[in-house]
Structure formats: structure tokens, C-alpha cells
Amino acid sequence: AAAAAAALLAGAGAASMKAVDSEALSEGVGAAADRCERLQRALLLLLTKRAHGVARLRWSQRALLDALTALRSMPAVQLPAAAAIASLSPLIGARSSPVRFGALALFERLQSAEAEAGAAAASEEGAEEEGDADEPLPLRFLFGGAAQTVAGRRAAADGEAMVALDRLEELMGDAADAEARMLAWSAALALLAHARPTAAARVSAGWKHSGLPGFLNETLLPLLPLARPPPGSGAASLAAPTSLGESDPPPGAAEVAVAVFAALLSRVPALARHWYTSELSRAAHAAVARYTELHVTPALLRREAEAISAAPSSGDDFVVKASIGARSVTATYSYEGTYMQIVLRLDRAHPLRAVEVECTQRAGVSDARWRKWQRTISTMLLAQNGSPRGALAL
């Protein structure tokens, strides 16, 4: 069925080309585009329903690859919600490497759908949580209802996604298949960006001691080219988040490791920092810090500076500026006679080492109030995977 749908998509594209020489150019192209869109939606629905059953079947790999290739042209705005894409998780562990990367491409394209992440954050307000709000959650509850707990007192609306996420979590711990393990972590990080903030925080909290240190020490660290990174690695992987899934042919193990390590430092910096300070062997400390300083931190700083420059202005009472050369982010607050300037100084190996929070100027702000703000900013940066601009906005 997947192969047939992919063939129909190719036929629809051919029909649109034939229409170029006809008098009904607009009508023909429009009808072909509509057929392509409907076929792509049907094809994606088919994959989400059958991925778990066919991912490891040898005879299905060609059809799966054809289907995923046909979906490459599907506009990101037409992709379903992240919870639906999560149902494709078993394809990350498919027999064929191209199928694995083709599936990852759909996860990676979710990262550009910022509206969905914003909607998830907005839905956070007023949601009531059952159980311990600090209790870590398994990955299967990433997109569950607000009242779900580890015990599962309220069933998920989409059981298929939960089963698929269970499979993704298995792949994240499979040390025997390094490629699938790295791609599974990349897919999980993409999904994490589209979950409700509390759900994302509780899922990532479960990785702190049980999942992430083992993955980094057993799989990622041995593959990272710490001595001689491959050309175009490090910073480039942050600038082009779809490079893994859309690479043709698929990248090698070292290139995948480079991209996943950069994604970890970008998405879950607090967890990466905990691993660096508490779980990493002393012998590897210097090499990891040097690699991060040269190949990851510069890209993180550039992206942070670009995000600050692109952010809408909040008026003259709150101004944020970033300096890549000084590795600092400065925020100036002024309100009804009070004034304060806060500077965040980032380490050369940011985010592996703590950010320094300093008040360089203030007027009308008491010591007690400043210390409270300092603790709030430091907590978000050190323990909650917050970004510098997000911490200052608090």
C-alpha cells in the first residue's frame, strides 16, 4: 500500500508537468497539487498506523523508503502534531539505515513548527497535575493528558503513540545498535521541544541518572571525534538541524555523533552539565571541554544572539543584548524609578560549566530583591534547561 501511494504521488507530479502544455494549466496543476496533498496525508496516516508492525520486516524496507521519500516534499505546515509523528518511532529502529534517516527527517522538521510549541506552552496554564509534580515520567507520557501519572491513572488518548514511544525508549537504551540509539535520542529531543513544559521537564528528569549518562559514556563519547573533528562538524550541525535526516547518502557514525552531541547541549544543557561534572571520567574532562569550546559553544552563542536580535521589542523598560565576543548577555530593566543591569557571563565551554550571574548596576532595588532574582535566574539556567534569554525574561 505504501509503495502504491508513493507511485500515485509520482503520477500526480507527472500529471502536473503534462498540464504545462495544456490550455488548462492552472486547473491541471491545482488538481495535481490537491491530489498530491491528499495522497501524502493518506500515506503518512498509513505509516503511523503500521510502523510498529513492519519496521523490522526485511521485505518492507523498500516500500518504507519509497513512502518516506514521497513525504519529503510535504510542507512542514501540513505535518500532523508531534504526538502523531511520534507513532513513527519504530522506524528509527528499522532494518534499513536509509529508512531510519528518512523517518528522522520528519521528526527534525517538527523543530521548525514553533507555533505548536507555543500552543503547548499556553495550554500549560491552568492544567491540573495528579501525583507528584516532580516525579520523573517515562517517555510514553510525553504527550499524555495533564492528569496522567507514572501509574497511568488516566489512559492516553492515543495508545499507538504510547506503544511507539515505548519502542523509542528501548532504542535509546540499546547499546548494541549505535546508529539506532543515536537517532532515537535525536528523535526524542525533537519531540521534547513540542511537549507541554512540565511534561518535558519530568521526562528529561528521568534521563538525568538512568538514560543519558549511559548513552553518552557508552555510545556517543567513543564516537565523538574529540581529537580531529570531521570537516563541517560541530557548529554546522546546529545551523542545519535537518542535516541528519535529509543527508543523502546517510552520514557516518562520527557525523551523527557530532550532531547529536550538539543537539543535547542545545536542548538539555542542564543534563549535559550534570553529566560533565558528575558522570564523566576525569581523563575525558579536558578533551570534551576543548571540543565543546571549539565546535559547539560558538554556534550556541551565535544562535542565542540571533534569537535575541529577532525577538520583538519589549519597550525601553526591558532591553536585552548579546555579545558573542565577550560571551555575555546583558539585560537592562527600568521601571518607575528603579533601574538594574544584569550580565550573564558564559564560559568558554558553555553550557558544560555554570553561567555567572552578575548585577553591574542597580538603583532602587534592594539587596534582598536582587538576591531573589539572582537565585531564580541561576536555578533556571543550572537545573531547568533554560536559555539565557528565557532566564532573563523571568
Walk me through this protein's architecture.
This protein has 394 residues and is of the alpha+beta class. The chain is 55% helix and 8% strand. The chain contains 17 helices and four strands. A four-stranded antiparallel β-sheet has the order 1-2-3-4. Helix 5 packs parallel to helix 8. The model is unreliable at 13-25, 112-131, 145-157 and 234-242 (pLDDT under 50).
User: Beta fraction of the residues?
Assistant: 5-15%
Number of helices: 17
- Approximate helicity band: 55-70%
- Gyration radius, in Å: 23 Å
Rounded to the nearest angstrom, the distance between the terminal CA atoms is 51 Å
Can you describe this structure in just a few lines?
The chain has 394 residues and is of the alpha+beta class.
Please describe the topology of this protein:
Blueprint lengths: L1 H17 L6 H30 L6 H10 L11 H4 L11 H13 L4 H10 L35 H14 L5 H15 L4 H11 L4 H12 L11 H5 L13 H15 L1 H11 L2 H14 L1 H14 L7 E6 L4 E8 L2 E8 L10 E8 L3 H17 L4 H6 L1
Antiparallel strand pairs: 1-2, 2-3, 3-4
Keywords:
55% helix, four-stranded antiparallel beta sheet, 394 residues, alpha+beta
